[in-house]
Write a structure and sequence with these properties.
By secondary structure, the protein is an all-beta fold. The protein is built from no helices and six strands.
Length: 111
C-alpha cells in the first residue's frame, strides 16, 4: 500500500455492537499464518467505527489514527507490510438478535 495515506469505504447495516476495522501486518501476524511475529502476536492496528445504520455511510480512515489495543508486542504500523483488512463486529451483551447485516462497498486506498 506504499504511497497511500489511508482507507476509504462505504458501509451500511444493522449491526448494533462495536465494529472494529483491523489491519493485520506481517509484524502482528504469527509466522504459521504468513507473518513474522513469534510472540505477542495478533495485536493488529485498528480503530473502532461508529455503526453505520441502514443508510450508506462514507468512512475515511487515515493510517495515522490506527492504534494497537495493547494486548501484544507493540510495533509501528507500516503500510507496506499490510496482509489483510478485517471488519470485526462485537455484539452488545444486551442485544436480543444474534444476526445482523453489514454491507461494504467501494473499498479503496487514498493518497
Amino acid at each position: 500500500v506504499g504511497p497511500w495515506k489511508g482507507l476509504r469505504f462505504w458501509l451500511k447495516g444493522t449491526a448494533t455492537g462495536a465494529i472494529f476495522l483491523l489491519i493485520p501486518t506481517s509484524d502482528t501476524v504469527p509466522t504459521q499464518f504468513g507473518g513474522t511475529c513469534a510472540e505477542g502476536c495478533d495485536d493488529h492496528h485498528g480503530i473502532q467505527l461508529v455503526p453505520p445504520g441502514p443508510d450508506w455511510k462514507l468512512y475515511q480512515v487515515p493510517f495515522e489514527v490506527l492504534k494497537q489495543l495493547g494486548t501484544g508486542r507493540p510495533v509501528a504500523f507500516q503500510p507496506a507490510k499490510v496482509l489483510a483488512i478485517q471488519l470485526n463486529v462485537v455484539r452488545n451483551a444486551s442485544a436480543t438478535v444474534a444476526s445482523f447485516d453489514l454491507m461494504l462497498d467501494e473499498l479503496a486506498f487514498y493518497r
